[in-house]
Amino acid sequence: MNPSLDALVEASVRSAVLAGIVLLLLWILRVREAHWRHSAWTTVLGAMLVMPFLPEIFPPVPMELAAPVEPLVRIVAEPVRVIAAPPQQLAVPPPIVAPAASALARNYLGMLTESDPPAQRGRG
Q: Number of structural domains, the chain?
């Protein structure tokens, strides 16, 4: 990429981050006075205009990045063979129902099957 284009992209990203931080601070601190908001945004606009020239004025700050971490699981793209068992060999376990829950269900179902009119159902 072109070095001057790189500098402009970097300045744009930094300006956007600065604007986002100021917006967040104004919102968190609940600044309502127009004077303070106008001063904050005027400062941000001034900083945005100076941002492309800052790398030439100030030296870059060296930062060390962490070494890449070895993944714990390796993903291997191998075909998976799926073997389906015939339907008669598939065993479905019976549902597990707690005794209290089944008694509650029987009471509820019994209430629904009584000869009460529909408007009276569920009114114990």
A: 1
In a domain, 23, yes or no: yes
In a domain, residue 107? The reply is no
Residue 69, helix vs strand vs coil: coil
CA angle 112-114-120, nearest 5°?
70
For residue 7, pLDDT over 90 is answered with no
Q: In the chain, what is the straight-line distance between the N-terminal and C-terminal CA atoms, in Å?
A: 77
Asked whether residue 72 is assigned to any structural domain, the reply reads no
| Separation CA 55–CA 15 (nearest Å) | 13
Q: Which pLDDT score is estimated for 48?
A: 92
Tokens encoding 99: 């005794």
pLDDT per position as a tens digit, 37-48: 999 999 999 999
The answer as to whether 21 is a domain residue is: yes
Integer Cα distance of 62 and 58 in angstroms = 12
Q: Look at the pTM and tell me if it is higher than 0.70.
A: no
